[in-house]
Design a protein that fits this description.
Blueprint (H helix, E strand, L loop, with lengths): L2 E5 L2 E4 L4 E8 L3 H4 L2 E7 L6 E7 L5 E3 L7 E6 L4 E6 L8 E8 L14 E2 L3 E6 L1
Parallel strand pairs: 2-11
Antiparallel strand pairs: 1-3, 3-8, 4-5, 4-9, 5-6, 7-8, 9-10, 9-11
């Protein structure tokens, strides 16, 4: 089994920065997980893809809405994934979720291909 725990959310002003962390654990994590991603969900909205990173090769992909402002990275020694968020906007306000998937998939933007999820951390950007 794989467990994911997010941290680092909070309240920040427009233009500010936050760094989210996703700590992964479980004896099968390193052997099972192929990629880790971040999703977010604002009230009344569907959960949307933010970014993903391949666990072994480190390839990254971003949604157009965060490209150039957010950076996803990983520390394979600590089994931790980070999301550095800069130039934050009010529309970035949401609960941010860390997710992990076992297989390779071209549909990495879909939440359906991720098997493991954290509990979420709230990010609020004030205007």
């Amino acid at each position: 089994q794989v467990q994911l725990v997010e941290s680092g959310g909070g309240l920040v002003q427009t233009g500010g920065s936050l760094r989210l962390s996703c700590a992964a654990s479980g004896r099968t994590f390193s052997s099972d997980v192929r990629a880790v991603g971040w999703f977010r969900q604002a009230p009344g909205n569907e959960r949307e893809f933010v970014a993903t990173i391949g666990w072994s090769g480190g390839s990254t992909y971003y949604s157009d809405s965060v490209k150039g402002r957010f950076t996803i990275s990983r520390d394979t020694a600590d089994n931790t994934v980070y999301l550095q968020m800069n130039s934050l906007k009010p529309e970035d306000t949401a609960v941010y979720y860390c997710a992990a998937r076992r297989g390779s998939s071209s549909s990495y933007v879909s939440s359906l291909v991720y098997q493991y999820w954290g509990q979420g951390t709230q990010v609020t950007v004030s205007s």
